[in-house]
Write a structure and sequence with these properties.
11% of the residues lie in helices and 32% in strands. The chain contains two helices and seven strands; from the N terminus they run ααβββββββ.
Amino acid sequence: MRTSDLAPLYRATVGFDQVADLMDRVLTDNVGAQTYPPYNIEKTAEDGWRISIAAAGFSDADLSVEVRENALIVSARKSSDEGERTYLHRGIATRAFERRFHLADHVRVTTASHVDGMLHIDLVREVPEALKPRRIEIAKGETVETKAVEHADA
């Protein structure tokens, strides 16, 4: 596999660290990519998403959803009740896991629910008013007078 060196990108840009980090994560070799537990990401609105994680065998108390430093961290740790049961076949995996999702700026988690063995996490992008584009009306036929500011020499 071809590897890319993004060092020139870091040297030639200012303020694009997140883009470079994203490209670096995407281009790295994911041979050991985590596949458990399976999950879906669906777009629910123009600025809304839902992450659904298969969490069969886990209770609400076993699951943890946390947002830290623009990352959504979902983890599960099964409380030990292994001494009580003897399995002839164990096909439902309830091993501990931690899954991380990188969140873009202004994306926040609105709700998390655990229904029928699925953990659903709803996210929405809320851009602050100060960052939204706004249209400036242009006055027609009016001239705006500007006054010269005199500097007092002291």
